[in-house]
User: What shape does this take?
Amino acid sequence: MSDFDSASLLMVMARFSMFHNGDPASYDIIMKVAGIRNDLSHMGLKDDMNLVDHTVKQYFQNIADFVTCLEGLHPNHFTSAQDVRDRLKEIQSEPITAKMKKDMYLELRQELQSVHQLTTELRRDVQSANQATSWLCRDVQSANQATSELRRDVQSANQATSELRHDVQSVKEATTELRHDVHQATTELRHDVHQETTELRHDMHQATTKLRHDLQSVHQSTNDLTRKVDNLQVVTSDLVSKTVIENESKTEEAPDEILMECQEQLRAYYINSLCKIPLFPGDFDSCVDLQDIYTKVSIEIKLPKPCRPVKMPLSSYDEMFTRRTREGYVYTKLLLSAPAGLGKTTLTAKIAYDWATQLEGSPLRDITLLFVINMRWIDHTSNLESIILNQILPRDTTITPDQVRSMIERYGDRVIVILDAVDESDRGLFNQVESYGNIVELLKGRVMSPCRVLVTTRPWRIAEITRMCKTFTQLELIGFNKEDVREYVRKFFHQKKNLGDSLIAHLDQNPLVDEIASKPLMALLVCIYWHLLFDAIINIMYHPSMANCRNNKNV
Assistant: This one.
C-alpha cells in the first residue's frame, strides 16, 4: 500500500471493528476489499491496486478522525493495535448518548455505502480486466498457433531445401558421369575416325594408281584417234569453209532488213500513240505531243553503303543510262519507284520519245532497240517477244517472235526493255509457280542478261522485285521542285499566257497549293481546275442576264 503500511491499516480496521462491537457487515466489507486488493495484486494491475489502497486509506482515515474526535486523541498516540483495543474499551465504558451513536452510525453507514459502491465498480473493472485477459489469452493462443504453423512451414522449407540439395548433388554426379562418358566416346570416335581415314587413304591411293594406269591407256587411244581425225579434217576443211562462206552471205542481209523494219514500227508507235498526252482526261481532242507538255522531274539514285544506302540526285534521266559503277560498268538492271501520280509512266514515254526522235545529245542515240511494255495486263506465263508483238508492233507486221528474240540476243547491251507499272501486274508474277514465261526469267536476270532492263513500280512492290533479283539498282522519283511546277504551268497554258501567269501568282500566294502541285498529277489537276474556273467565270460574265453588269464600269 502507498503512504501507509499494513500495521497502520490493521490499527484503523481494529478501531472500526471495536467501535461497532464486531459488526458482521462491516467485517464483510473489510474482507471483500482485502480480497479485491489481493486479486489486483496477483494480476499485476498496480494502478488499480493503488486506487483501491487510496480509497481504503481515505475511508479508514475518516473513521480514525471520527474516533479521534470521540476520544479527544490523535492516532499517533497509539503505538500498536493492542493500544487501540484497550483505548476503545475505555471509550465503550464512557457514556455516549443515543443521538451521538445514531449520528455516528448514519455517517458510517453512508461511508460504507460509498465503499460498497466503489467495491461494485471495482468488481466491474475486475470483470472487464478478466475479459480483456481472456481476449489476450485467446490472441496469445492464436499467435502460438500461427507460430506453430510457421515452424511447420520452416521445417517443410528446410526439408525441401535438403531435397533440392540432394537433387543438385545428384545432377552434379550425373554431369560428371556424362562428361566421363562423352570423353570416352570422343576418344573412341577419334580412334575410329583415324583408323577409317587411314584405310580410306590407302584405298584412294590404290584407286588413284589404277586410274592413272587407265588414263595412260586412254591417252594412247586418244592419240591414235586424234591422228585419224586430223586426216579427216584435212579432207573436209575445204568443204566446210566453202559452206560457211555461202551461209554467211545468205544470212547477213536479212537481219539488217528486219532490224530496220522493227525500228520503224517502234518509232511510229511511240511518236503517234504512246507520246500523245490528253490535257483533259477522256478528251482525246485535247491531245498534245509529249514534248510540248513534259517537264523535268527530280530523280535520286540509291547507292549501297555498309550502314545504309546513300541517296544522290541525278541531273536528268539520261544519267540513269550513262552512270557507271566504280569498276566502269553501266547499270543494266534499274528499279525506279515512286507513289502514284509522280510521273513514272510519263517518264517512260519521254524516254521512248527521245529514242524515237534521236534527240541530239541523248545517250539513247546509241541504243539499237527500245521496248516500252505496259505490265498491267501481263501474267507470269507471258513471253517477252509475244508481248512486244501484241502491245507495240502493228497487227500486220511480218516480224516473228523468234526474230524479236534473236535481235534482242544479238544486240545485247544496246537493247533497253522498260517494264512499266510492274506493281499492277498479275500477282502470280512474284509467286513461286511451276511454269512461267521468260518475262519472269527476264526480271530474275536469267535470260537476255546483256540487255538493259528498267522496271517502274510503286514502293510497296520493291521488296518482292528485289527478292527476285538482287542486282537491281534502285532509283526514286521525287517529283517537281518549285521551278518545275511553274514551268509545267507555262507549258499547259502556252496559248493562254495570262491565265498561266495568274495561276503562278496564286501559287506564290498559297504555299500549300504550291506544295500539292509538286506531284505532276496534282499539278495537272490544279491546271485543269484553274482552266475550268476561268471558263465558268467567262460563261457567267457573258450570259445575257449579265449584260447590265458588263456595261457598268464599276463592276
